[in-house]
Amino acid sequence: xxxxxxxxxxxxxxGVLPTDTTEDVRTRGAGVSAQVAVLxxxxxxxxxxxxxxxxxxxxACAVARELAAAYPVHLLPPLTVSCSHEHAAWPGxxxxxxxxxxxxxxxxxxxxxxxxxxxxxxVNGHGGNYVLGNVVQEASARGERMALFPAxxxxxxxxxxxxxxTSLLTDMHAGEIETSILLHAHPEFVRPGHESADFIADDRRxxxxxxxxxxxxxxxxxxxxxxxxxxxxxxxxxLTESFEPYLALLTRAAEPE
Length: 257
Description:
alpha/beta; two-stranded antiparallel ribbon; 9 helices
């Protein structure tokens, strides 16, 4: 992987917030065909009784942190509140509108371009942030360089490599994948209870109309009992490898014909 030497110089406050100085950004951007920033987007929503409300943000940050350690990209602080309307029945969940999230990400991309950062990768940790696909789609149509990561195919490759038993359909929320990543990256935030919280609801065709509460009382859909720190480590390693063609695509777009 390119840029592997950045790991030693890269710092993260509390495991989530980047600690770069402006000189770090300037140095990292020197000599590259296009500067690329990575924006983790999470959520603040229920994840059952054993994972924190900030789970999706921690997952997005864990992925983005690995990317920044392996590639010459600029890591941004996360967006921690997004579109979690389907979880509104549970205390603690907070949402913003899709219009607001669209505007915030678009504004961040525009600000980056003004400062000389050519491309933005949005690392999405919450499946309900459907609007992020539209943000990237519209930006690309305008000739701007933007990507959404990871794709479903990247998650599937990571699932197989890590030995995750649960399918992506079944592993919908607070399941094997999210529990594994937190057991690896932030075990201090995983409370007891995931060992006996498995719940399956594969037919969720009315989710957008009825919300999560129509399908689960606990807020869990998946098999968290199968989660492990080793699986979490392998999931992140696979996603890091899957990112290389994204970076190549965004930087190649900046090179002259």
